[in-house]
Design a protein that fits this description.
The protein is of the alpha+beta class. The protein folds into two domains: 6-119, Protein Yojf, Chain: A (Distorted Sandwich), CATH 2.70.180.20; 133-261, Trna Endonuclease, Chain: A, domain 1. The protein is built from five helices and 13 strands. It has helices at residues 14-24, 133-142, 187-203, 219-227, 252-261, and strands at 6-9, 29-41, 46-57, 63-66, 75-77, 84-89, 92-98, 105-119, 152-158, 165-171, 174-180, 209-214, 231-234. The strands form two sheets. Strands 1, 2, 3, 4, 5, 6, 7 and 8 form an eight-stranded antiparallel sheet that branches. The chain has a five-stranded mixed sheet with strand order 9-10-11-12-13. A hairpin with a 6-residue loop joins strand 9 (152-158) and strand 10. The longest helix has 17 residues, at 187-203. The radius of gyration is 27 Å and the shape is elongated. It starts with 5 loop residues before the first strand and ends with a helix.
Length: 262
């Protein structure tokens, strides 16, 4: 295990730790664990009472303060939002930052310290995300016989007044509309497919076949599909996603934006 880029900064004397931390900002990642409180003063004010937390200051000056539970930070600051300074406040270590554009401030005071470390970290790789519904759609487009033998894709993300159709195609000279879900099908999914069919009947004056694709179908969903002459296809996405690679330019924020839209 190579720890040559990882340095433990002595907690005492506190003056020496403050000097070391201020010299490290922007050069290395800073990790501080201990009991602290935090005050954010801005358009919205917040206060965190004492608790055991980890403060991480990244090389781009972004700040995250984490509690022992959960994935969301309790407090955070975007990269290069404002200068960061460590100082001594009533014998305690304080991190203070002021956002340049808004003049909002964040103060984190450590009433006890477990450890302080700096890390000369490097990461040049980009995140590759596997397996959301757009990946499954692309896979089905590349392998249309999984839908039906002889199926031909005409369009993906076809725009309608009631939402974008995942896949529009033709099978046995019959036009087909497909809704794709990587999770188990719900009545809402089946109803959405029915709305697409109604759209084509009303707006485009076409009778089209509707297929809902999902890894599993509860009984009430099957009943709804049967009642409305819609079809189901079981495709287990877990066996497909490991071999799907998202395009390199995709970023984590794109993934979450997509998930919010689903």
């Amino acid at each position: 295990m190579n720890i040559s880029n990882f340095e433990i900064i002595p907690v005492s004397p506190i003056q020496s730790a403050v000097q070391k931390l201020n010299a490290t900002i922007g050069e290395k990642m800073i990790i501080i664990a201990g009991r602290n409180n935090a005050i954010f003063d801005g358009r919205i004010k917040s206060k965190l009472e004492n608790g055991d937390r980890i403060l991480i200051i990244k090389k781009d000056s972004s700040i995250v303060l984490h509690s022992p539970q959960g994935v969301k930070p309790l407090n955070w600051q975007k990269p290069k939002a404002g200068p960061i300074e460590f100082k001594i406040n009533n014998s305690y270590l304080e991190m203070f930052t002021r956002r340049t554009k808004t003049n909002e401030t964040l103060s984190i005071i450590f009433t006890s310290l477990n450890f302080i470390a700096s890390w000369h970290a490097h990461d040049e790789s980009e995140l590759t995300i596997y397996g959301d519904e757009s990946d499954l759609v692309r896979y089905l487009v590349a392998n249309p016989d999984l839908i039906e033998p002889g199926f031909k894709v005409l369009k993906t993300e076809y725009s309608t007044d009631v939402g974008p159709v995942d896949i529009r195609g033709i099978s046995n000279q019959e036009e087909v509309i497909i809704e794709v879900k990587k999770r188990n099908a719900t009545p809402q999914d089946a109803h959405q497919l029915k709305r697409y069919i109604e759209y084509f009947q009303a707006k485009e004056k076409k009778d089209v076949k509707g297929i809902l694709i999902a890894p599993d179908f509860p009984k009430k969903v099957i009943e709804y599909l049967d009642e409305n002459k819609l079809e189901s296809r079981i495709i287990h996405w877990e066996t497909i996603f490991p071999i799907i690679k998202r395009p390199k330019e995709s970023k984590l924020e794109d993934f979450f934006q997509k998930k919010n839209e689903e």
